[in-house]
Specification:
Blueprint lengths: L1 E6 L7 H15 L3 E6 L11 H6 L11 H9 L2 E5 L9 H10 L6 E2 L8 E2 L6 E7 L4 H6 L3 H9 L9 E7 L7 H16 L7
Parallel strand pairs: 1-2, 1-3, 3-6, 6-7
Antiparallel strand pairs: 4-5
Length: about 200
């Protein structure tokens, strides 16, 4: 399985970097091929420009500035996001990546009356996200889990209809003990080491 890991954190020594490494170790233990996009390290521009917005609904023209990223998404069997949750949602850079790369006609068909988005990323048969949150789990439920829903339901709505979905989260990150953080890394690595793609 070819797994595209999209990683987003500005600090190289962060706990999220350790989460990324645990994710990759698990995938490689399972024999999967890993393609890593480090949004900060690569200098990805989150800003959707005026020109890109004007070309957004024009097939062909809407892929010119993000062709490499789009090709890597379309070549993947699994899409795995590793990023913190800030203010209940993805970091701005990750949201910008979603805005710019998941363009219509290539990754989804435009909605029609009484019909939702058409799934065009059916090559993605595994969708996973690993995140840390400052909020406790009960408050995350209270506010409606917006970050999780963007990825699991929003992006999940344009991939293979029977894709496996996985959300792994460490809550109350700001007060989590070393033991709790270490246990989370072990859990993440084990989960991806046992990950198998959807067949058929």
């Amino acid at each position: 399985m070819r797994a595209l890991v999209v990683y987003c954190h500005p600090v190289a020594e962060s706990f999220t970097a350790a989460v990324r490494d645990a994710t990759i170790r698990g995938l490689e233990r399972a024999g999967h091929e890993v393609d890593l996009i480090d949004l900060y390290a690569s200098g990805f521009d989150a800003v959707l420009s005026r020109e890109e917005r004007l070309a957004y609904h024009t097939p062909g023209a809407n892929t010119r500035t993000i062709a490499d990223h789009l090709a890597r998404v379309k070549q993947a069997d699994a899409l795995i996001v590793v990023a913190p949750t800030w203010w209940y949602g993805p970091p701005a850079l990750l949201k910008g990546w979603l805005d710019r790369v998941l363009v219509p006609f290539e990754t989804f068909g435009m909605p029609q009356p009484f019909r939702p988005l058409e799934r065009r990323l059916t090559n993605i048969r595994v969708l996973a996200a690993v995140s840390t949150l400052g909020s406790p789990w009960y408050w995350w439920l209270w506010v409606g889990q917006p970050g999780r829903r963007i990825l699991m339901e929003g992006v999940g709505g344009i991939i293979h209809p029977r894709a496996r979905k996985l959300w792994l989260a460490l809550h109350s990150m700001d007060s989590a003990s070393l033991a709790k953080r270490t246990a989370f890394l072990v859990r993440v690595e084990a989960k991806f080491a046992s990950l198998q793609p959807l067949r058929g």
